[in-house]
Amino acid sequence: MPSLVRANAALLIGVALMWPLGAALPAVLNAYYLQIIVYIGINIILAVSLNLINGVTGQFSLGHAGFMAIGAYASAAVTMFAWPSGLPGGLWAALLAGGAAAAVAGLIIGIPTLRLRGDYLAIATLGFGEIIRVVIVNTESVGGARGLFGIPSLASFASVYACALICVVLLWRLVYSPKGIPLAAIREDEMAAAAMGIDTTRLKILAFMTGSFWAGVAGGLFAHFIGYIHTNSFTFLKSIEIVTMVVLGGMGSFSGAILAAIALTVLPELLRFGAEYRMIIYSILLIVMMLTRPRGLLGNREITTWLSSKLATAR
Amino acid sequence: MDQFLQQLVNGLTWGSIYALIALGYTMVYGVLRLINFAHGDVYMVGAMCAFYFAHWLGFAAGPSLVGFAVVMFLSMTACAALGALIEMVAYRPLRHQPRLSMLITAIGVSMLLEFGGQRVFGPDPKFFPQLIESRSLLAGGGVVLTNIDVLVIGVSLALMIGLRWIVLKTRIGMALRAVSFSYDTSALMGINVNTVLTCTFMLGSALAAAAGTMVGLRNPKIDPLMGLVPGIKAFVAAVLGGIGNFPGAVAGGLLMGLTETFVAAYLSSTYRDAVAFVILIGVLLVKPAGLFGKPVVEKV
What is the mean pLDDT of chain A? Predict the structure, then answer.
């Protein structure tokens, strides 16, 4: 146990630093900027977790928003109906419950659909995302078509970025450790990977569950930040937005996914001066970015390797 | 029984619309392996073009079959040009790049058409002019079969037969089949792949425009976001039938339309959208290549 603490000391200190940072930020930034920064954090979790499924393992999923929805509703149900009010730790219990619910859903959905390849998998996951949404709309106990009101606003800058940091560090370690190599092997050639003795089904499902877990956590943070959730926030357009972040960043690149999550969250806000032309400019920029950097902003490299190669050539 | 027949008529009408859109998805997928997300929005542009042509040419005032034919033809031509333009600008430069980057430009084009449409056409729904006076052909027995239903099904059928003729009997159709069989080999055999791809997009977009015009006749409320849901459903229909397969797209479209209307009529209208996907997943689990798709044998 002490060795576990020592190995994670930097991470723990980083997480702990988020609270003083979160307390200091309102002094320099107004609520509008703060809100955008929190959205960036949530989108980073979503993009990085989909990157594990889509970019690293190569399983094209279009249902990420569905898992986010499960996490949002499950965690909101915990703080609203289950956790005694006044008792601290409600947010963390809720986030764990939301993540776990999403992971279980990922398991149930993953077992049958991960047999499918490529675009068929994409459409099956899209279908499950929509089914999840329709089922929630028809469930009156969580608000149904009216949406769920009155979720306690427990999430803040600190908790969102603490989660984002933990998510990025844990998934980075997973992918760039010996355990991550079989995942990349599945992406490159599933049949060759299976021939090398990799249990492809098990690993695909594990990657899918891990990604879904973090999507659920992101959903929980989202619910507890804005305090009101509606299934309209989790349509397949949201899934497409997350896929866009992964592809624009560069498939398999964590830093790329983070950069793209920041860019695609900030861009619509920066374009507010354009009023009704805002989304038109946004979509043109998206096309132009993809045409100029067809392999994504960073390709499949990380920003660290990209920088060091730049420095090497500069010398 | 009356209700059953009525829903059958509704389902077949919607099914033919889905089938026309699904054909466009399946053709593009066959040659490019691309989910053309912008296709549903081309269908919207088709409906909008028909709306404006009908007003400019004065056919909105006096309903006539000729007016409908002219409007539909013009809208199909306009959308064919749009399809060719989209292919050249957004997809051609990325043809030798990872497949997913083309998917993102497809999403970009789709958003551009939707938000651009809201700007150009206005975000509020428009009322499509009555190009043809709706008459009931079968008044008796509680079943309403209008001339518009018959027209939609008939025109769709004619377009499908026309497409089949193009694909099977013409030079460009043969080239299209060759490219969808093997992109590289057909290029080596001297087929101008660029021309074939442009033609594929033109054909698919023209079919979508026809679908848009006919939807305008039947459900006169059209708006810039109307392509979103039918687009996704038509794509699902194409996958259901086995993507890349023409009869499969038609069968998938009809199946989709029929299931949806029957579920909405007999079970619950709120579950309508989910049931289509449940069927899709069920079919994919049993036949992973779709109803008519051939299982792909992977060679190592």
Answer: 87
